[in-house]
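Batch manifest, entry 17 of 40.
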Amino acid sequence: MKDVRLRVLLILPNLYVGGTQEAVRTLAKYLASDHCRPVVCSLFDGGPLWDDLVGQGTQVEVLSLPRHRFLAFPWFVADMVHNWRMLAKVIAEHQINIVQTYLLGIEHFLVLALARTMGVPVVILNFRNEKFLPFRHGGRLKNQIHLLGYRLARRWASDYVAVSAETKEAMVRLLGLSEEKVTVVCNGVDVDRYPRPIDRDRVRHRLGFNSDAKLLITVGTLKTQKGHRYLIEAAIGVVQQYPNTHFLFVGDGTLRPELQAQTNALGLSDKIHFLGNRRDVSELLTASDLFVLPSLWEGMSMALLEAMAAAKPIVATAVSGTGQVMIHKETGILVPPGDAAELARAIVELLSDPARARDMGEAARRRVEANFSMEKQTAEYLALYSHLLQEELEGCRD
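Output type: structure tokens
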């Protein structure tokens, strides 16, 4: 096949601060080369990552498309027609030959149909965790509609990407896909964003903590999936043994009022600090003693990989993807999800042995460098893009 330049459109709903958005930003940065030109497209909203993307030289399209629910059918159809035209303009303008989607719901099907209509050779649907259906509470009918849509769309999608082996298993089981149709490409982290050493005391003093404080950090959207309420419960036992311990909750979300109320009710308001969305996460990680991931489910947590890149010892729940990244008792400690008592026990175990915790952090950094670097992820994506594009183009010639 003649060497064809890869023109990749990465589509996601918004450019807010989040693990998927950071994964897209970093992938776009590393894909850019003479052979590959990535474009990031946000369908519904802009967000603070726009500046980061533009600053690193990535082309960005923010469509701010209208969005009505399926039940408002006339307006929903009008939205789809409008969205179709706007996306078609982006695809034509940038001469896209590869489309890859993230975190979309019914828009997946819009993109699939549009890309095929416009002759885009390769369309890839990216799934971030094993609970990828958009409605988890009271939405059984909607989930069934989405499952049917994904199954009907199998003949249009070139490939599906899962971020972990567990996510792939769920996709194969729920969508009826063949093993060959789903490619596992693990998340990668930009290790260079976590240089060492850093002035820990400066960062701590900026936050109002002294050098002797035990700082534990968790990073994630404040939603049910991330399991923050179990970490708050665990904090009671930790603080009893280590009164100078503080928990940094980085991220925001709909559960913030509820979690703050739980914190106040347990008398932990001076120990648990809700920092909201931050742009200095790398510094906060480096200044902390321990990273905690209390999630109830994941695909492959970007926050976990970033903490490991920052050489932090980890306490995490044994959920999808996490066991693929961590090595229990070597890079940290894995505990059952939803178990506050085990979470507290593991945290105390590492706080009581700083030398062992430091060794785990160093092992975590080495593991990320060897297995979950952006260089490795980018190479896997470029190989997948080239392979799929070659198959499609040769198929067209046949």
